[in-house]
Amino acid sequence: MPETLNVAVAGYAFMGRIHTAGWAQAAKFFGTPARVTHVIGRNRKNTQAFADAFGIPNVLADWRDAVADPDIHVVDVCTPGDSHVDIAIGALEAGKHVLCEKPLANSVAGAERMVAAAEAASARGVRSMAGFSYRRTPALAYAKRLVDEGRIGEIRHIRAVYLQDWIADPEFPLVWRLDKDAAGSGALGDIGAHIIDLATFLTGQRLTGLTGITETFVKTRPKLAEQTGGLTARGSEERGEVTVDDAAVWVGRTDGGALATFEATRFAAGRKNAMRIELNGSKGSLAFDFERMNELEFLDFTEPAVESGFRRILVTEPEHPYVGAWWPAGHGLGYEHTFTHEVKDFTDAIVEGRAPEPSFADGLAVQKILAAIEDSRGDWVTL
Ligand code: SOE
Fold first, then answer.
1. Domain with CATH 3.40.50.720 in the chain
2. Which atom of ligand 1 has the smallest separation from the CA of 134?
3. Ligand 1 centroid vs 190 CA: distance in angstroms?
4. Which residue from 133, 140, 190, 341 has its CB within 8 A of the most atoms of ligand 1, so it is best to mutate?
5. Could you tell me the fold of the domain covering 138-292+294-333?
6. Is the pTM of this model over 0.90?
7. Which protein residues touch ligand 1 with a CB less than 6 Å away?
8. Which CATH number fits domain 5-134: 2.60.270.50, 3.40.50.720, 3.30.70.260, 3.90.550.10?
9. What would the pLDDT profile of 217-234 be if each residue is shown by its tens digit?
10. CA 266 to chain centre
11. ipTM of the assembly?
């Protein structure tokens, strides 16, 4: 085991950028023994500019070069979904630990191949993890603690939505996230995957069956001229077809006897990153909204009705998950901290020789649900 793990990050646009920031912060705030030594990107000029800005010493144009380099110990896959299978499997077979962004792959078959490679690698002590970063939001990690302690009792309802509006303008161009070949699906896989994972993470329950529908409201858009930021772009005069869903809704039953409802959309005008989840149990309720990510609502249903009510817990105390490494109570954390916590937890597992969570198998379970929602078209699908 090297003293410090050398990390190659594949991709630099949005996820690559935030993962790179996460690795740097994890080293500083948690003493995580890892550093980004390489960034991999096909556009030489942009990749170099990113490397310069983030102080990364090496730039690679091809992920195969990272996989072949014995001095690289971790490959962090932050590219669009169509390259996840090849990079992750190539890296695992070469003995690199792999962190891979969600959704794990663009198909169930691809995710199954990744799981097989991850299991074979695990037998050799090579670790892998799926990048469901929201699990590492302190308020959600704390919510899980409360659920595990039985504070809300038996769970009756899981109610989750993930609402964005960044493509609500019909003239927003065809970025890769709107291309089925590159992204696998639309709002469903990009943000729906998060709430599927979170529902399982928080409750420990899995969907046993579901029915769902998807919709593409805007069928054609200007072709891409230039990607100007993580979720911003400039279009050209020519138009092309949107090949993914704009929104999806689904409802299901869990193996723990709960009813679950979900919605994922990029057309919720005014909602920027409103990932909300509410759990109602026999003894209480919990509610969270990522747009207020330092808060958690908790209702204790065992208290007398005359004085019970939702209390707003400010999840900024040093005793709350992850918070002690950061700022004094009340000063709050942001989106990027979830990635810092993610790479910290991943590295801890590598160092301690245990399997990190969520595993690629967890990523495959999400992938199967995404496929079931697409196949359902309003019919019941047993999982
Ligand atoms: C875009 O919809 C996106 O960046 C997702 O890809 C991320 O997973 C989510 O964290 C925020 O929104």
1. 5-134
2. 10
3. 6
4. 190
5. Dihydrodipicolinate Reductase; domain 2 (3.30.360)
6. yes
7. 14, 164, 190-191, 231, 273
8. 3.40.50.720
9. 999 999 999 989 889 999
10. 16
11. 0.96
